[in-house]
Amino acid sequence: MTDGETVTVAADDGVRLWASRTGRGVPLVLCHGGPGLWDMFGDVAALLADRAVVHRWDQRGCGRSQPCAGPWTTERFVADLDAVREHFGLERTVLLGHSWGAWLALAYTLAHPERVAALVYVAGTGIGPVGDWHGAYKENLLARLGEHPGRLARWRELEGRTGLSAREERERAVLRWTAEFVDGERAPEHARHMADPWFPANRACNAAFGAETRRVAGTPELYAACRALDVPVVVVDGARDIRPRPAVDSLVEALPRVRRVVLPDAGHHPWVEDPQGFAEAVRTVL
């Protein structure tokens, strides 16, 4: 359909969202993680460009999208995602969400199942209570960083300070992101790649969605909605993600049309550490 296009999408309240479209084939819309970060899916777009028209976007108030004061709610972000879909003229699309973006992609699919041909749920944390997994995640983060004591010491130093410069904010994020990868020697390279380009994280957005997720995750209403979802879902996990993978069981057990792919040697960004396995999993719904 197109070899490359970057556009501005206007949400229904006028906030401007950065978006892009590349590749040829089945329409595929990506939802990045965070919350409060930005689209880092350049490698995913390149990996799938032969089979999909890949639509990427920065969530409101984040990255290349217009700075704004929110609102920071799943309902608002679902509406923004629908504005992206409508802007590109997509009647139905495959939807792929990663990490927190998997939560958003699931929420959109529950709200608009008729507009989603399939959902690819990558490295999410399921629909159970946040307390079921978050403590173990923090322990695993420290353990992975602790495999390289210099990284852990420097990250703790930056984490314990206020008033960091932009350079130090980036350094702190890169150090934390090294824990997302299995190969400790290549992890700094992968993490620096994530930070290029670099934008300040939206802390207000992150805090608001953290609170909302704690309220909604694990509720009977969410389980019931997932049990009634008549859309095919592929769950893709890196087995060595520092977020405990059993947390995703809550979602897999609720969904009536689900297939799970576990990539044994990958962490939180499986397309980086097992690009072939990741691409094969996604292509099953393209």
UniProtKB/TrEMBL annotation:
Top-rank taxon, per record: Bacteria
Keywords from the named record: Hydrolase
Keyword check for Kinase: no
InterPro entries: AB_hydrolase_1 (IPR000073), AB_hydrolase_fold (IPR029058), AB_hydrolase_sf (IPR050266), Peptidase_S33 (IPR002410)
Gene3D superfamilies, per database record: alpha/beta hydrolase (3.40.50.1820)
Residues annotated as transmembrane: none
Domain AB hydrolase-1: residue ranges: 27-274
Family according to the record: Belongs to the peptidase S33 family.
Record's protein name: AB hydrolase-1 domain-containing protein
Provenance organism: Streptomyces roseiscleroticus
